[in-house]
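SEQUENCE-TO-STRUCTURE ENTRY
===========================

Subject: a protein chain together with a token-level encoding of how that chain folds.

Sequence line: the amino acid chain in single-letter code, read from start to end.

Question of interest: how does this chain fold, as expressed in backbone structure tokens?
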Amino acid sequence: MAPPHPTTAAALPAPRRRTADRWLRVHRCRAPRPARRLVCFPHAGGTAHLFHGWPAQLPDDVELLAVRYPGRQDRLAEPCVEDMAELADAVAESLAPYTGLPLTLFGHSMGSAVAYEVALRLEARGVRPAHLLVSGRAAPHRARPAGVAEGDDEALLATVRSLGDYQAEVYDIPELRELLLPALRADYRLIETYRPERPVPLRTPVTAYSGSDDTSCPMDAVRAWGDLTGPGRFQLRLFPGDHFYLVPHEARLVADIVTRIT
């Protein structure tokens, strides 16, 4: 079959979508109208697909919004974002049409830090999230750098594999490795350069989740999320497993999250 002519529709630029459409994958709830929304932020190198099984486990009136970082999946042609402020600004802006209902934010690993920064921006606009749920990540002022040298892809992949087996095998396939590495590199640049010495406390309650065997998150550094909310507004929940405990324990985690969505 001959390749398409360069003037065909396939070769034309895709029409620009609204900001919310580009940044959020919306999983409509089963009720006629949602009453609450859960916004989910993936880990470094991760995608919105991490949360594809969650909507079926949520109450009928909860709408799930999965954040779609650029530089992967159907945003593959877009440049990755390597600056936390730029990323958090964009996601907060994309959520503007959805702030009429209570928002709960959940982030895993790097996504926890992004969710926290988005919560700060929402609060600054007068929108107080119902809850911030952070997973697999030390508090911003207690996070340790991974120490991966720029340009050392083998060291970067070794760091990723040390976190657990979740999808690590995709980097063993040369074609997928070439496709996925740019986003992973960009995400690590972003999170490695994100070092707020005095992060601003939220008015929003915070719950932290962690795998009991997650060596990337010392427990005292996870508990330090309690410094970033008011007295009596912090809780910690542990699950068996490593950094990606949330994959084998998805049902238990989502059930716990449901109890915190208001």
Notes: The chain is about 30% helix and 15% strand. The helical segments are 19-23, 84-94, 110-124, 153-163, 174-192, 219-223, 250-260. The domain at 16-260 is CATH 3.40.50.1820 (Rossmann fold). Confidence is low (pLDDT under 50) at residues 1-17.
